Amino acid sequence: MRKGFTLVEVVVASVIILVVLSALSVALIFFIRGGKSLELQEGALTLARVEIAEIERLEEIPKSGRTERPDTLWGHPYTIETTVGFQGDNDNAVDVFVAVSSGDSVSIELTRRFYTDRNTNRQELL
Amino acid sequence: MMKNTKTDHDQKNRGAALVIALLAAVVVMMAATLLIGLTRRLVDAHVGRLSAAQVTLSESSAADGLAFLLSQRGPAAASEPLHFDLAGVSTEFTLLETGTAGIRTGFYSVENALRAMFIPTGDRLVSIRKINESTVLITFFSGETFNPTSEFTFETDLNPVAGTPFMYQREEGAVVVLEGDGMALIAVVTSDGIQLQTSINSTVLSPRSRLSAGEASDGTPLLIITGGANLGTLYDCESGEPQHIGSPIGTCPVFLSDGSIFGSVIQAYSSFGIAHIVDVFSGDFNNDGMDDMAFTTRFSLSIYSGATGEILRASPGGSLTCWGSVGGRTGLCGMWKMPVGDDQWFRLGYDGFTKFSPGMVYELGWQGRFQGLGNTLTGIIDGSAVIASSSGYILELLNGEIFTGDADGGETDFFRTTENGVDACFNPVNGDGIELAFSTVNRYRGKKTPGETYIFSIYESDGRIRVFHTLEGLDL
Lengths: 126, 476
Description:
- The complex is a heterodimer.
- Helices cover 41% and strands 38% of the residues of chain A.
- By secondary structure, chain A is α+β, with helices and mostly antiparallel strands.
- In chain A, strand 3 and strand 4 (90-102) form a beta hairpin.
- The N and C termini of chain A lie far apart (91 Å).
- In chain B, strands 25-24-23-22-26-27-28-29 form an 8-stranded mixed sheet, with no helix packed on it.
- Chain B contains 1 helix and 35 strands.
- Chain B is of the alpha+beta class.
- Chains A and B meet through helix 1, strand 4 and strand 5 of A and helix 1 of B.
């Protein structure tokens, strides 16, 4: 009596394991890539929130227009783009868009509206 | 029988192998599924945080929008449907209750506040403090939230000794004088930092000096420092160049609210050192639509008419004890303690100061300048800031070392320096405000989430409505 598995058994079992391991490796790649992307997105969200909080803290509306500056968080480079403009139908409302990106794949956008009673470049927030 | 047994055994072995393989597969698949599930949950959590961040910002923006609406239309705006849209988030406000806001108070947190100098600059409070032998820390505080809005240091061995509010290129700031070792430095500061500074090879301040800052016609910042009476020096804050300046006796050179200078650098005025200026304040005292300037000495109350340039003076012979302007009632008035006889009250009439008999609320023992509106007066009594009305209502606002100024863009505010900060009581003459509480609901991507409860305090002064909002439970 010979003990052990037949060739067919080994092939069938190997195919099953191969298929399953492929699925696992796909899941792992998905997890690792997703994790990295999430880390970048979280960093971008943090920077966007900090940028808006900084503008809120100053209690002054920044000058109209677009500014861009680089920043780094948790070792990742980001670009912070701030666009300030009066809202079309309301001279008293100023919209501040903060977009934080890292490469082509990650971009987070947040918007905050401020109100002022003076239509000048430098106003105090109400 | 033996053959059959062997086949069964082989089949059992084969089945076991497949079972092992399948079990391994199931375990690995479960791990993979868990991994994918975990990733999905992490992504969903991130999307949730992103949505929550935008919802919070949209809600804050909506609250600012409602504050703006209330400041434009008054409390009546609350009766309309109130919803605001921003970045796909719709925020709806529902009025929960209305009430009385009380007099607005606040606290500015400042380390070693007793060693700091404070300048109310209109909408803000500036603290100037030496933090070590060679560094002065300058902090601008918001008049709304009482938080620092900007802070910077100034490397100098000199000590900050005085300051006065100043608008530099449409930005609220201050002119600060620092002195030490026989020299002085004049610096113009705004929330963006030190804009200008100039050194002077002598000290410039005396204990009775009064400061007033303004601009020359070409925009150069100028600072008037008086010796305490009617003569002083006008400094160019860029070059430090001094010019003698003077004004009639009983007044002092000062910048008027229209930006012009009261006083002259050309005309010679005789020195009259006894007439030390105790107080200088502006307002439309003669109701001609133009701001005037009032000056007090220990014995006199003078008004310079912004419209005619005329100076009217009351000096009935006693010591001027208290003075002030009460809108809608007596106007500009003062009380003199006479060497003999009863106290005498004079007020500014159509053609000069005339005697009058004041109501009870005037005779509570005010010290220095009071201010009033209708039947309500605020000022200092027995060293405490007090509000009182002719109905007999009297309330102590602050006690201790009190200074006054404007740090929130309204009427005169009262401040008290404590060890760890500054207590403030804003525009008490305008009395209580109206309080409105709103709940919020946000709608974003088909999801409805309840927001915060906002409390709006609405104050009206000089026809201007001022609105402050806080979250319920926060004592800002």
